[in-house]
Amino acid sequence: MNFSKISSLKGTLAVPGDKSISHRSVMFGSLAKGTTEITHFLKGADCLSTISCFRSMGVQIEEQDGTIFVRGNGLHGLKRPEQVLDCGNSGTTTRLISGILAAQPFDVTLTGDESIQKRPMKRIMDPLSLMGAKIESVRGNGCAPLRISGAPLRGIHYSTPVASAQVKSAILLAGLYAGGETRVTEPALSRNHTELMLSAFGADVSTEGTTAVIRPAEELFGQRIQVPGDISSAAFFLAAGLLVPDSEILLQNVGVNPTRDGVLRVFRQMGGDIETVKTVCGGGEPAADLLVRTSRLHGTVIGGDIIPTLIDELPVIAAAACFAEGETVIRDAAELKVKESNRIEAMVTNLTAMGADVRETEDGMVIRGGRPLHGALIHSHNDHRIAMTFAVAGLAAEGETQIPAWDCVDISYPTFLEDLKALV
Ligand code: S3P
Of 155, 329, 341, 385, which has the fewest beta carbons less than 10 angstroms from its beta carbon? Predict the structure, then answer.
């Protein structure tokens, strides 16, 4: 796919449903009694992987007029899948499902694509094993494929070395089935969709600072879920609206859960004109209409507790920082190295190819903004967020930006090009 400089972006957009919430709606709906009805579900490849895993464990999931209906099997109703569970490219599917599978009365193997088979799974294997789970990496390298044999679990208090909602959620889901209470303490608070949603499904979950607490559940109950727009997808159009001259974009119904809204805080701190027009709150997940206008940005420092609240948006923030006056420092973000690709390396090499002044550090990067960028051949590493980040950079750079491995965008934002065209 090729992108070149455009003169303006104007219009209104409703970005697709939130990926994290879509995954959890299907997972928790599968474990609940009764039907869970999901509207604005993200039909990206990752969430389709979650649907396919639960279908192969006997859960009936169908779509009618754009609404997803999950006919839950109850907490103890999953069936042993006949084949290896394929989690595709999805870390959320792999890690969260492992927490559930650890407690089921059957054996299962799960795996995913080339990228998933390189991502660290020891971070869930360690705490789940402490709970009594039987989980092993088939190749002994701490990565998928994972073989999990259901076992009786016990509650633990686990302090995770990384702030990761996927790790926290895997432990909490295992905790649904464990004897006694399970506590997870994080170094900084990661997204809390699991806590909010499990509580709405009837589980006994509470939060004390950066500690999430769950007690075993007897039953979960099907819910009606309206998935808000994904702030991680909106971030590309926030950045494009800020960078492309003469732009004004209204992004409707964007999820603005405070554990996810770091990108808004950072863009505003950089001088970005992003107005919150209307806020609504459904099912504990706040959403807002956001109006973004072209802005003159300046550099900033991003690090510490804000990192988990914008971890997926750091690539596009880094691209925006190249167009800002002065220096931007991103630190405490070593987690970027173990996402769908090594996002620090992918950002630094591709931005450098476009003429940016950017330097890789141990846990982030330093960007000296204000140099004009030019088009280049971009290596997306089949990472959806890298591909879309460089589409945005290409809209503001001189010349043509080529992104050959573009299809990966289907992971989280299959309608990205249509949405972009509607604003041109
Ligand atoms: C997610 C958590 C984050 C994020 C990922 C989705 C989730 O990963 O990067 O895209 O849905 O829980 P970590 O929890 O590993 O940081």
Answer: 329
